[in-house]
Amino acid sequence: MRKVAIVGAGMISFGRRDEDSLVDMLAMASTRAMDDAGLGDRAIDAVYVGNMAAGLFNHQTSVASALVDRLGVLPAAADAVENGPASGGSALKNGLLAVASGYYDLVLVAGGEKMRDVIGPRATDIVASMTHPLAEYVYGITLPGMAGMFTRLYMEKYGVTPEHLAQVAIKNQDNGLLNPYAHIQMKITLEGILTSPHAIVNNPMVADPLRLYDCCPVSDGAATCLLCPADMASEFAKPPVVIAGFGQATDTHTLQEREDPTDLKAVRLAAQQAFQRAGLTPQDVDVAELHDAFTILEIAESEHAGFFEKGQGAKALAKGETRIGGKLPINPSGGLKSRGHPVGATGVAQVVELVWQLRGEAGEHQVEGAQVGFSLNFGGFGNNVVSFVLRREP
Amino acid sequence: MRKVAIVGAGMISFGRRDEDSLVDMLAMASTRAMDDAGLGDRAIDAVYVGNMAAGLFNHQTSVASALVDRLGVLPAAADAVENGPASGGSALKNGLLAVASGYYDLVLVAGGEKMRDVIGPRATDIVASMTHPLAEYVYGITLPGMAGMFTRLYMEKYGVTPEHLAQVAIKNQDNGLLNPYAHIQMKITLEGILTSPHAIVNNPMVADPLRLYDCCPVSDGAATCLLCPADMASEFAKPPVVIAGFGQATDTHTLQEREDPTDLKAVRLAAQQAFQRAGLTPQDVDVAELHDAFTILEIAESEHAGFFEKGQGAKALAKGETRIGGKLPINPSGGLKSRGHPVGATGVAQVVELVWQLRGEAGEHQVEGAQVGFSLNFGGFGNNVVSFVLRREP
User: Fold this and answer.
1) pTM (2 decimals)?
2) Structural domains in chain B?
3) Less Cβ around it within 10 Å: N or C end of chain B?
4) What is the pLDDT of residues A114-129, one digit of tens each?
5) A82 and B69 in contact by Cβ < 8 A?
């Protein structure tokens, strides 16, 4: 298998983008990635699109071939990959395998979702289409509902408190203030969202114990990576970042079938696989982008991925170890909480952020001297998780 | 890149399957493929699902991880691939690249669609979600509408007649009568569907010049292939069939932008690539499964893939050359016309049929002595086409 490098990275600002269609957004992010690489007139061989539900959000299918046409890179092969909120990670994995196989050299992987085409609770219903149709969806469960139950169990088992959850939100919104691509640009404080008498108004309960600021926003957005064999990377403008390892694992469709619902087995396995393939360990990681669709997930994933012992993630957070400047900065981009979570975009956006970090191009939210990055993209409620270890080539 | 073999093939009968969910169907076809291979207790590494629009047809997403759980092959990696009506072909291509890359050994590729969950014209509307949202869909175009315009142009340019179209339908429904997996099991005659005074009632116009029997039915169904590196194939129960080549190409999103709308450029390129990678030519092919969603497409694809000169496909058909027993049997399974076209299933079902043909297991619709098979899966209106050349290993 060939070693694969990322030679171009592009993103557009996440948020509410009423004037841009899904394909518009994918094309803008992709053009930026191609420009970033200094692609010139080299031909793209294949395009992957990570997208969860353009059918439901936008009544559109076959988005990947539409993107190929829009970008003017005909007759490149085009495939869309769907894996719920881990669609971006899955698309990137398939782009990676396509280059690793030797069949394709230049592969563009774009992730995107336009969620704000639908109104109000419809977005939550569309996201809930990944739950089990007969054992979960039919009873009205939503992802915030599942996450609420998971949070309660995790709090009881590991001593996580509402303050810890709020600290994830505060840290990530602080980071988002430094990231021009972030959807939510707003300073929040522990007093404002938790301890003052107005907190219940500022930060209402969504799914007990999760409040509004424990949940990521509903966003539009797109991000793109350009991949090539590592031995071609020197032909491009920027220092290459190598995909040193990837992991992907599936867990039971329903939460209720897991022996211990607080054990995110697929997160553990995906991270282990990625580190094993990279020949690295969690201790080697300088910066991580985790899937904080709900605040509890950043804490739980930081433990399951091997950065902290079980029960220690919240403590490390409270000590500031996961802030920019701390021992292991987590979500310097602002994460899903602040950058936003256009579902199909997220897995690619995490990796674009890491590419910028490893190149030293992350601007105000730069983690100094970062050489190794880790991403974790969480599909379903931990059903299907995709993880990457990236390394700046020396 | 590693050579890849198909060691298991399974399908369920296509048709109206009210009692089976999409995941039920995918699981049944996959169980058959695993049994066919004599999988035993070997672990599946990854599962790909080809599916176009479970979100819209069934309000379900993340179908691939649901299938992994249902099959009990956790923690296999799971990805769904969407590429309109070529979703099955795209999924198979990505399964192929995954094995070729060396990252995965045993990969299951299932294609499926449950289209009969929606009522009446809603299925046609969902399929039309692959057209251009601003340049086509908004004007009410449907796939039958596009195919009708294409047919008229093709008839004028190449002398194709309504009789030729009817002959495709008659041949493929005759073949379908020999295939227990086919949705449409019904003898039709030229008199009944075209020349008798009752023909207009039996076979009403859908999109002039296409009549009812020129269009494939709306079906539920699923099919699965099990892939492994060719050098592992001898560990399995059946003689391996090698994926000798694949091709995939994209064309403009809108029909109107093509210089000559009768020129199916992506079909030509995908077929050329597949033959080139296989080191074979159209003359080497013993049996072909083409994408006859509309009768004209079988004729046009048989020319664009290189089996006949432009304008000669209809003549070869009229001479009986494409019947079982003819020079180049096309769609011995009955094709999309008779087996049915559950969109995401089709690309995989074509290849399952070829595996059976190359093993000599196709029963009453067997093409005697077939050694090389060709499939063509047509997405969009020729926007994104995936093609395979399969070979029975000597």
Assistant:
1) 0.98
2) 4-120+218-235 (3.40.47.10)
3) C
4) 999 998 899 999 999 9
5) no
